[in-house]
Write a structure and sequence with these properties.
Elements lengths: L1 H4 L3 H14 L4 H13 L3 H11 L22
Helix pairs in contact: 2-3, 3-4
Length: 75
């Protein structure tokens, strides 16, 4: 999250992927990864990551540990 806020998308991507490698059920990391994909035009990858989260994302809508808008695209 910090790497994204500092404008270091590659580092942010690596951080979110590493978190998911350690714990595939890490909803925050998955939503942040989806938001990062979406921000850089990788809509298909963003949709795939968001789909893995599902309805459980709504409970995190105001989570300060998420990239702004990370929950908005989850269906």
């Amino acid at each position: 999250m910090i790497a994204h806020a500092l404008g270091r998308p590659q580092e942010a991507f690596e951080s979110f992927r590493a978190a998911l490698d350690k714990d595939d059920s890490n909803v925050r990391a998955r939503l942040n990864l989806a938001a990062l994909y979406r921000a850089y035009g990788y809509d298909r990858q963003a949709q795939a990551e968001s789909a893995k989260v599902g309805a459980g994302a709504a409970r995190l809508a105001n989570d300060p540990g998420l990239i702004p808008g990370a929950v908005a695209e989850v269906k």
